[in-house]
């Protein structure tokens, strides 16, 4: 599930997630994200930190309390990713912090379900290709 109030950006990210072989649902605010996770029970939630009405940090805490014991991976999506943001993400229960623009390889690693082996909380971000170019890169055969 992708939670972001920028619908165009959320749809672009959803296209990448689906191209990587995952089902994807969208929510545009924290309240609908909480409701939809109850209904859909996603394995992974990509959660923007800057949301209207309820910030991503609070949404993460509420999801953790509501789904206690359920292996759901919650990943923060940030534009900054500085040390303070990373520390707050850890304390709120996020599993990882992705810094935009999100690199396709990093996204693929982040989408591993909570039960699969995954790296510890990290912030990753590097300037790179557009979403379309990243998708083409993912479709290119190895070694080409």
Can you offer a commentary on this structure?
The chain has helices at 7-19, 30-40, 56-66, 83-92, 104-110, 131-139, and strands at 2-3, 26-27, 44-48, 73-78, 96-99, 123-124. It has 144 residues and is an alpha/beta fold. A 6-stranded parallel β-sheet has the order 2-1-3-4-5-6, sandwiched between helices. The termini are far apart.
Give the spatial strand order of the biggest sheet.
2-1-3-4-5-6
How would you spell out the order of helices and strands?
Answer: EHEHEHEHEHEH
Low-confidence residue ranges = 118-140
- Largest sheet: number of strands, sense, barrel closure: 6 strands, parallel
How many DSSP helices?
6
Mean pLDDT, all residues: 81
Alpha-beta content class: alpha/beta
Helix share, percent = 40-55%
CATH topology: Rossmann fold
Strand content: 5-15%
Tally of separate domains: 1
Number of strand segments: 6
Supply the CATH architecture.
3-Layer(aba) Sandwich
Termini separation: 32 Å
- The general outline is globular
CATH superfamily: Response regulator
Using only C-alpha atoms, the radius of gyration works out to 14 Å
Q: Would you state the CATH class?
A: Alpha Beta
